[in-house]
Amino acid sequence: MTTGSTAKKKTPSAAQARAQALLRGERRDRRLSRNRRQIADAAVRLFEQKGFAATTIEEIAAAADFSTSTFFRMFVDKEEVLFYDFPERLDELRAIFAQPHGNAWQAIRRAFIDFAQRWDTEADDLGRRRARLFHAEPGLRARYMARNTEWEEAIQQLLLAELGDSASGRLSASVVAGAAVAAFRAAWRTQLASREPLQLVDCVR
Q1: What angle do the packed helices 125-136 and 138-163 form, to 10 degrees?
Q2: pTM value surpassing 0.90
Q3: CB 78 within 8 A of CB 50
Q4: What is d(CA 142, CA 147) in angstroms, rounded to the nearest whole number?
Q5: Spatial CB neighbours of 61, under 8 Å, sequence gap ≥ 6
Q6: pLDDT tens profile 48-98
Q7: Which of the two ends of the chain, N or C, has the fewest CB atoms closer than 10 A to its terminal CB?
Q8: How far is 193 from 91, CA to CA, in rounded Å?
Q9: What does the alpha-carbon distance between residue 18 and residue 26 come to, in Å, rounded to a whole number?
């Protein structure tokens, strides 16, 4: 090393730059996920204590140790808080549908059984408490049904690829998608309300 000289900083290659950007993105996503879950946990506690209608966004943010402005950077309203991970579940559903499958119904059944098994093995106390809330709370029903509609639309697209985009195909796809999501919703509600140990996958199958 020469005295007085400045070491030349090595410029990362394009591949290294992409890897670093990907790593930063993953860290940011994990931090956002943790923060959203923290807010959801605070919201569930307040909804259980005070009721959904009586709880304000300001109270939720304060209970989670965030400012109200930070809350609004993550959620559009208090209804959305309990569904913070639903977009990820929808992406997973579409990913399952994109995999090779014998027919559309086999893919739908596989997706629902997979979600049920994951619920049975991975659901924690927060997950169960918020699921009970959005199944039972009238103020959350519209948002929950809107999320259900997104699932129905994904299933319809899968079915239309097989049935063909005709009037009869669209009708069949709409009926089957609506029935499939309604059946899963009923199975989930039954499992949550059961006083005896009950596996969601057994209700879905």
Answers
A1: 90
A2: no
A3: no
A4: 9
A5: 39, 67, 68, 70, 71
A6: 999 999 999 999 999 999 999 999 999 999 999 999 999 999 999 999 999
A7: N
A8: 28
A9: 12
